[in-house]
Amino acid sequence: MNTTRARRSPSRIRSLAAAAALGLLLSACSVSDPEAPAADGEGGDATFSIAVGIDPDTFDPAGQTTTTVSNMVDYVVETLVEIDDEGEIAGVLAESYEVSEDGLTLTFELREGVTFQDGTPFDAEAVVYNLERITDPELTVPQGAAFAAFESATAVDENTVEVTLSQPSPGFVSALSATVAGIISPTSVDAEGNSYQEYTRPVGTGPYEFGEYTAGESLTVTKYDDYWGEEPYYETVVFRVVPEAATRESLLLAGQVDMIILPPVSDIESLQANEDVEVLLAESDRTIFIALDNTDPVTSNPLVRQAMNYAVDKQAIIDNVLFGAAEVLDAPMAPSLFGYCETGSYEYDPELARQLLEEAGAVGASIELLTPSGRYVQDAQAAEAIAGYLREVGLDVTVSTSDFPSFLARVNAPVTENTPEAHLLGWAPAYLDADFQMQMFRQATHPPAGLGTSFYTNPEVEEILAQADVETDPDVREQLYCDASQIIWDDAPWIFLWTQSFPIVYDADLTGIGATPVEKFDAMYARPES
């Protein structure tokens, strides 16, 4: 197998069936390693600058909560496997894996000759350390539910790891492609500025090393000279934190950054007509919703939650606030996920909403709607529009806005008096499988253990999902997720809103920029076109 890591295609990636998420069903798998391009990096001292909308909440792979931050961490830290452009499991730090006949033992053969950025070797002991860390109940791992079946890991030899599962887990190998499973240097945990619980300066095997971070301003990463794979073109990559979409756009048009994500959607048409930039409207598996506190005296009532769904004209908001850059949800997950089925609709019906609120005795109830600003497409503007619709049917709604780290600190905490009755949130599964989406509806992932921020639980859903966890027949598993979706839809733990597109705009003189189907930009190997 070629020991040079191939870069992913920069072309637009279509949403694919999540066949890769079922990789564990195979008894022996050689992870694909596509042919690499011939040219290595030649950028010298060149710098590539990307403007994003939020400040990182954590650089610890284990603590990841959002794809934008994971995108940054991915420059430094790599995973055992990734999901390639064809939806197949591709090797990164693992070259192949085998699964025992009973599905309980996985054996990974590791790539040789790889070193961490602190000079220590990448080997089986490092993989064991990382798997044990992301499954350690003493460590907060918000996306850790995907590894619930992990029982133990053993270094068979320097380049072989044997993983034992407590039960068959169809999505386990795919879950290892997520940034949360990124492999860090075990010695770096004790380095200055780091600890096991507070890991702030990641050290991985990636093409870039963690450099300087100034909160609210920027993160800089620099090329790792001993990287095992293809050398990137740029010596330095700078991520600039720019919450306002219009400001990000202005910086790009002024040539002060090379790429932005989430421009003002009202300007997409004019940007498409601008010969100086390229616009990529990438597909996304992200669902946008209003999470409702299912423990609150008001929003714990399913009639109130259903009323709030009927109260909001989602299509009107998409047309007038998001300028068409989204599709109304018809299920509790995006259509690109394995396990999706069309579940239902909450058509705009303010009269029915008022009737349900009266029946529930909730007319005039006070609701705080918390929203981030700059994290999702027109997030704060959408929240204001949603609040307007809820007020029209008799709720007393106030909108609160905060920066993203502060927002996460509130919604990813146990229930207190400070818990908002409602908050706008997005969820983009790290692999295309309903297993990851369903983390949002399980009691085991209620904050702070996970990101199920609506605090929803239903015993029937829990039972169905427990069956899906171990089901190896994909048709049966797909039906189980459909059954669970129907119950969740009727329970309405969210105001189900839309799946958004993922707009990326960059300098027209650049090539090698694309997106993944899990809403990440792919610019690691960006370079001038000529």
Provide tags for this entry:
alpha+beta, seven-stranded mixed sheet, disordered N terminus, globular, 22% strand, 13 helices, 530 residues
Fold and architecture overview:
The chain has 530 residues and is α+β, with helices and mostly antiparallel strands. The chain has helices spanning 67-73, 124-134, 172-175, 245-253, 268-272, 302-311, 314-320, 350-360, 379-392, 404-411, 434-437, 459-470, 474-491; strands spanning 28-29, 47-52, 81-83, 89-91, 94-99, 105-110, 150-157, 160-165, 208-214, 218-223, 236-241, 259-261, 277-282, 287-292, 326-328, 366-372, 396-402, 422-427, 494-500, 502-507, 510-511, 514-515, 521-522, 527-528. A seven-stranded mixed beta sheet has the order 9-10-11-2-12-20-13. It is globular, with a radius of gyration of 23 Å.
The 3D shape can be described as globular
Radius of gyration: 23 Å
Mind describing the biggest β-sheet?
A: 7 strands, mixed
From the helix content, strand content and strand pairing, which structural class follows?
A: alpha+beta
What's the multimeric state?
A: single chain
Taking all residues together, what is the mean pLDDT? 91
